[in-house]
């Protein structure tokens, strides 16, 4: 790989998610050469991706070019590449565009969709971890609505219009909510010859509540909001198979639907070359100490979703959301300084700012400390927090403008089929 | 095709470009059932597409969902389909989604890229007639810049960074200008290890001036602006071949470039089933009378780029730009009223509002009546006119915001490779 020479120690950061971005931006101001590697040339603001999938926002406004991340590009190098493996002894990384050596390596590769080994579902279901996948959902739903206008067979129409989501975590809940808003706005306006009742939205989850990672109070509220919006919530229900456009569950529910979205979980996206003992098999996360060092290595760190730091408060690791990644990235910048100064590294301690999910217009839930907020207050908070964390002034302005427009017009302007989706 | 029954006479409009959109919007307010058919579900604002190709605007902000075109959707039906052929005697249209009968047919299918029969160039060159094509140009240029950072071989770098455009009409000129702005802003900021001089932009044209459809004064000004921006303009130069990433011209110029964009002309996009005598072979446009009736038919009309109306002032037909299409669409609405009232149809007379092209920041040319404007005044006029004609309030706001942002930041925020482009 063609990296400009420098006298500074080189830190390679793999992955431009929340952790990698926070770290790179700050570390470049210290005495380090920062090499950021990602398979995309943009940071993708995951928390708003469901709005791309449901025609509310343009993909460009939730993505930020990684090359534009820092002002001073002298000690910041971005490379578009797939990482193949690491050789810790040689401190060398192998990638699709060649080898590169490092002084320190930071793994911030995040997660991918977890299909729990079900190959059949992996091949036939849609998921939403990348921008192209979100665009596929948007196109496919719109294509199916167009097809629905062509038939008078009610069962056929319903099958085309029905949406089934497996997994009622934040992704499943926010997508279901946004689909029902789409149904109550765009569908009624744009498709006068379709019956909106035929667009059923089914949200399935194996546990006994939605948003199982939040408080019980928040789950209750969210479930009520979803039902108010017409979402059919099926709890204690797991998908057994999805074949010939039919979802079959362990409760013997059979739902015919062309659009089947898998949002049931994530699994780590580890890189090869790290010793086996340092990888947690089940979650595919790298075991790290309190300083985010991958167990058994001095010069390799892991932060964010890919890192499994077991503590008293979090025996199974931190929640796989933006905040721990951002905070670990911030701490690691300071620890890199301490390494240079030869002082003792600081241990990570998670400051829980709370968690939230939006269900629809004026409807959100938020857990902050021991309080649970709901309704309009939570919704407004949700909007503010997401605008604040969105990267880039332009993105914030464009998103804000779109939200105001959508809110007052009950509209979702990005309902375009730019690249039609074809099931394989 | 599944079209709701109605007592009103049915007008089928093929194509949601400027002509089809203007006509549909207004005709639906009269006593007609309007069926608009397009192969995309959006209207594409062609005049700003070059900004999508050069990372200045999101595709979603220059596209408008065709289903959202009219407020009262009762007498307006949109169908996403490819037209296969028309059977004038049976007044039937065959499409990819079945047959449909009409009382009146309006062909507004516009044009496609004209490769003048050169199959080899058709297969290897890029062009910019659709949104996905514009996105391909954006991705491909960015992918090649990423690749350029990986080599120290100067010739290889230049080949990756060089852009050759064949055809200096508005598309070629506006693209070249926008690429040089990209080079002077994003390239310098984002790629500190690349030499911006290596991103050569070559604009080729067979005639002796750029913008040959405009006044000589405008051509001169535009050529000067292009040269000031560093674009290498080659006049009286035609491309003979493009093989193995090398452009060869009739003047024996050889330019190695991965990005080769064909903007040398357009040709009509006719539909099958219309008698041969009514089609102009060379331009592939339908011959129409002064009322836009396709010659030999009472119930079939053609408007916009696909219509060839020979008049004293325009012996070779009207310019293939937005204004004639819009004005013919407007007139046809009134003529449909006259048909219903049984009064005489009115003849089309083109009101030339002028033509313009933008070359870059503060630089545009405009011909209005016998005046030629240039520089900042023309540029500001260009911005205003394009915002005005853009469909949809939201699109106008988002585009306006992006322009302001790009202007003050010398930035182009949409520099994202969302779907990498692969040459076939």
Task: Please render the helix and strand layout as text.
The structure is a homodimer of 424-residue chains.
Chain A: E1 10-14, H1 18-27, E2 33-38, E3 42-44, H2 49-53, E4 63-65, E5 76-80, E6 83-87, E7 92-95, E8 98-101, E9 104-107, E10 111-113, H3 119-124, H4 131-148, H5 154-161, E11 163-166, H6 170-190, E12 201-204, H7 216-228, E13 232-234, E14 239-243, E15 246-249, E16 254-256, E17 259-262, E18 266-268, E19 279-280, E20 285-287, E21 300-302, E22 307-308, H8 322-341, E23 355-360, E24 363-368, E25 371-374, H9 375-389, H10 393-409
Parallel strand pairs in A: 1-2, 1-9, 2-5, 9-21, 11-12, 11-17, 12-13, 20-22
Antiparallel strand pairs in A: 3-4, 6-7, 7-8, 10-18, 14-15, 15-16, 19-20, 23-24, 24-25
Helix pairs in contact in A: 1-8, 4-5
Descriptive notes:
The structure is a homodimer of 424-residue chains. The first copy, chain A, starts with 9 loop residues before the first strand and ends in a 15-residue tail after the last helix. The first copy, chain A, folds into 2 domains: 138 residues, FAD/NAD(P)-binding domain, CATH 3.50.50.60; 195 residues, FAD/NAD(P)-binding domain, CATH 3.50.50. In chain A, β12, α7 and β13 form a beta-alpha-beta unit. In chain A, α1 runs parallel beside α8 and α4 runs antiparallel to α5. Chain A is of the alpha/beta class and 424 residues long. Chain A has 10 helices and 25 strands. The interface between A and B is large, with 54 and 55 residues.
């Amino acid at each position: 790989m063609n990296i400009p020479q420098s006298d500074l120690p080189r830190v390679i950061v793999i992955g431009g998610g929340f952790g990698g971005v926070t770290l790179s931006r700050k570390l470049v101001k210290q005495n380090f050469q920062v090499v950021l590697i990602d398979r995309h040339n943009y940071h993708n603001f995951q928390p708003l991706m469901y709005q791309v999938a449901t025609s509310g926002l343009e993909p460009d406004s939730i993505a930020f070019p990684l090359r534009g991340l820092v002002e001073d590009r002298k000690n910041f190098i971005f490379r578009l590449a797939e990482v193949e493996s690491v050789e810790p002894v040689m401190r060398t990384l192998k990638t699709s565009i060649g080898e590169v050596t490092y002084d320190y390596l930071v793994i911030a590769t995040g997660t991918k969709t977890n299909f729990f080994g079900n190959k059949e579902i992996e091949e036939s279901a849609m998921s939403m971890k990348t921008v192209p996948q979100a665009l596929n959902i948007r196109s496919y739903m719109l294509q199916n609505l167009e097809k629905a206008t062509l038939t008078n067979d009610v069962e056929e129409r319903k099958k085309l219009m029905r949406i089934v989501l497996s997994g009622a975590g934040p992704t499943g809940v926010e997508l279901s909510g946004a689909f029902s808003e789409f149904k109550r706005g765009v569908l009624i306006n744009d498709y006068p010859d379709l019956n909106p009742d035929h667009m059923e939205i089914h949200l399935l989850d194996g546990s006994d509540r939605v948003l199982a990672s939040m408080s019980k109070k928040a789950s209750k509220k969210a479930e009520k909001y979803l039902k108010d919006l017409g979402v059919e919530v099926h709890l204690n229900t797991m998908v057994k198979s999805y074949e010939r456009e039919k979802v079959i569950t362990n409760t013997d529910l059979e739902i015919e639907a062309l659009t089947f979205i898998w949002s049931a979980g994530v699994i780590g996206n580890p890189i090869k070359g790290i010793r086996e003992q340092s990888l947690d098999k089940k979650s595919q996360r790298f075991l790290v100490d309190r300083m985010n060092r991958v167990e058994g290595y001095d010069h390799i760190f892991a932060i964010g979703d890919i890192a499994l730091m077991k503590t008293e408060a979090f025996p199974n690791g931190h929640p796989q959301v933006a905040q721990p990644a951002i905070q670990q990235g911030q701490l690691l910048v300071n620890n890199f300084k301490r390494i240079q100064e030869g002082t003792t590294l600081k241990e990570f301690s998670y400051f829980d700012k709370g968690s939230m999910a939006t269900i629809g217009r004026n409807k959100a839930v938020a857990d902050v400390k021991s309080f649970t907020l709901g309704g309009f207050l939570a919704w407004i908070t949700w909007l503010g927090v997401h605008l604040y964390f969105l990267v880039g002034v332009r993105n914030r302005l464009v998103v804000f403008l779109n939200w105001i427009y959508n809110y007052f017009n009950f509209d979702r302007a990005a309902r375009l089929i730019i690249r039609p989706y074809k099931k394989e």
